[in-house]
Inverse folding.
């Protein structure tokens, strides 16, 4: 990465042509988030409580396991019940019911059954992903730092992170640990060591040649090994219970300091730890930023911002008086793992999870005499997938990277992403349906994004789900900066913009879809 000094201009706030700062309301003084002592425009102030709820969600979700757990907590608080995966849905599902299930504890599907639902009716689906690029602890974690006296960990790059942003950050460890319980059963425990136990230090500028400084190239194998500690290590190491090593020698390859931290965090013996799936995360909490708190800075906005809004919208929609009573369809949120590495896995959007869920829910309500193939294909043609993933807001220091007429702005609402080469699933029809829904609900008009012709285009779970199920789909997202950096930025009011649009989707989709003379 080459930096020119004109690319280092910080931005203080977001200029806005609308009467954004006109109405003077005394500053919102949330001491916890250190808001600035300025007069806060109502246009931002009213969005802050929701943004703070989202920020708590991000802070509690340093990995897909925690993202699913945090979401499940929200669902359970709203009386959603967990489905028994191996039992028939026929005996478990009822009209008006609210359900969820998880897979690998890293993928989540939650849905409500409209009280007017019949087999063959549609599925209103909001899809997102729980994973973000990060550094995962390798199967053999121990890395002896040679004569440097440093204790390090071996880590593996997951997804396409902006890895240089991981340098000089305070890093913790989270994920799940497998433990042998007292009865001999293997249990899983989520763990989150929310302290700066790890760090990947930069090399001092004085030790770099001019050429090295200019290139700022990093070797992903050699330069990302985080530091876990120093000399005290020996003292601590002596404490591991050497007598009780696991037979297959697994323990020998693990950094003892890491095992000890896990054991004290979980309240188990190190000898009871059988394995883990761990990753590093930045312990800095999400914060409100900008002169008027019009930005939210956080890790993993891609794609936890979408996950939060999706779960929150299903919770709010389903607890709205009368909403499910008149609903003819299924309202469903599906949050998949493994999007950042292509979705091709047992828990990714490329897995049978979506198709199977539709099939099983449909079957549960099908009369015995029904022609199953017919009901199923009717259901597919009445369904719609709103695939949500963050979008690229125009960057003031790199404005030429955007196509001028398709340059989304932060705090200006959700973005429809389109690509004629099907990197995004949006079509003329699906884009129009969402614009109609927004219009009907009196919401802010959606923004449009198309990548420049001379630039490659990302992709999402949208085309994957629509190609495997045959459902209509659209790709949308909130505009943000610094995608895949360890810390990203989005607009504070866009949480409201997204949430309102998702609720409107659940509320108005059937009516809008039926207003098309032809669904084909
Ligand atoms: C389970 O989730 C973890 C964390 O995201 C992931 O690393 C692992 O690959 C997942 N397992 C499966 C079977 O998908
Ligand atoms: Zn994403």
């Amino acid at each position: 990465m080459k930096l020119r000094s004109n690319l280092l201009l910080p931005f203080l706030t977001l200029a806005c042509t609308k009467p954004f700062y006109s109405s003077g309301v005394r500053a919102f003084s949330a001491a916890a988030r250190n808001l600035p002592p300025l007069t806060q425009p109502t246009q931002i102030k009213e969005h802050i409580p929701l943004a703070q709820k989202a920020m708590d969600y991000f802070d509690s979700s340093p990995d897909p396991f925690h993202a699913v757990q945090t979401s499940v907590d929200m669902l359970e608080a709203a009386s959603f019940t967990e489905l028994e995966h191996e039992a028939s849905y026929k005996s478990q599902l009822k009209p008006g019911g609210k359900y969820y299930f998880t897979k690998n504890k890293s993928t989540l599907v939650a849905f409500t059954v409209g009280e007017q639902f019949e087999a063959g009716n549609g599925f209103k689906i909001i899809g997102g992903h729980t994973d973000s690029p990060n550094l995962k602890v390798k199967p053999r974690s121990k890395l002896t730092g040679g004569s440097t006296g440093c204790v390090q960990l071996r880590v593996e790059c997951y997804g396409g992170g902006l890895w240089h942003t991981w340098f000089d950050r305070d890093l913790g460890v989270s994920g799940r640990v497998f433990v042998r319980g007292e009865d001999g059963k293997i249990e899983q425990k989520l763990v989150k060591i929310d302290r700066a136990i790890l760090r990947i230090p930069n090399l001092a500028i004085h030790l770099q040649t001019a050429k090295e400084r200019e290139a700022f190239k990093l070797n992903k194998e050699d330069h990302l090994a985080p530091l876990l500690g120093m000399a005290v290590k020996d003292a601590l190491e002596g404490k591991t219970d050497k007598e009780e090593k696991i037979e297959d020698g697994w323990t020998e390859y693990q950094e003892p300091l890491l095992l000890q931290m896990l054991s004290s965090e979980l309240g188990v013996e190190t000898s009871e730890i059988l394995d883990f799936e761990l990753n590093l995360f930045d312990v800095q909490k999400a914060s409100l930023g900008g002169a008027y708190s019009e930005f939210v800075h956080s890790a993993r906005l891609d794609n936890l911002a979408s996950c939060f809004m999706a779960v929150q919208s299903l919770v709010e929609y389903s607890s709205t008086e009368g909403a499910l009573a008149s609903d003819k369809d299924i309202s469903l949120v599906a949050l998949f793992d493994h999007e950042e590495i292509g979705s091709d896995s047992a828990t990714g959007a490329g897995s049978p999870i979506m198709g199977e869920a539709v099939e099983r829910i449909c079957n549960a309500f099908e009369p015995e005499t029904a022609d199953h193939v017919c009901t199923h294909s009717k259901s597919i043609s009445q369904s719609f997938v709103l695939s949500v993933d963050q979008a690229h807001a125009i960057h003031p220091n790199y404005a030429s990277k955007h196509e001028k007429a398709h340059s989304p702005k932060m705090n200006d609402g959700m973005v429809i992403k389109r690509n004629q080469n099907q990197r995004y699933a949006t079509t003329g029809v699906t884009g129009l349906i969402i614009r109609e829904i927004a219009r009907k609900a009196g919401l802010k008009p959606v923004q449009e994004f198309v990548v420049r012709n001379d630039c490659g285009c990302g992709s999402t779970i949208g085309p994957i789900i629509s190609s495997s199920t045959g459902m209509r789909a659209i790709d949308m997202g909130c505009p943000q900066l610094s995608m895949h950096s360890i810390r990203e930025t989005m607009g504070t009011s866009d949480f409201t913009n997204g949430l309102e649009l998702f609720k409107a989707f659940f509320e108005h989709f059937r009516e809008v879809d039926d207003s098309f003379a032809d669904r084909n």
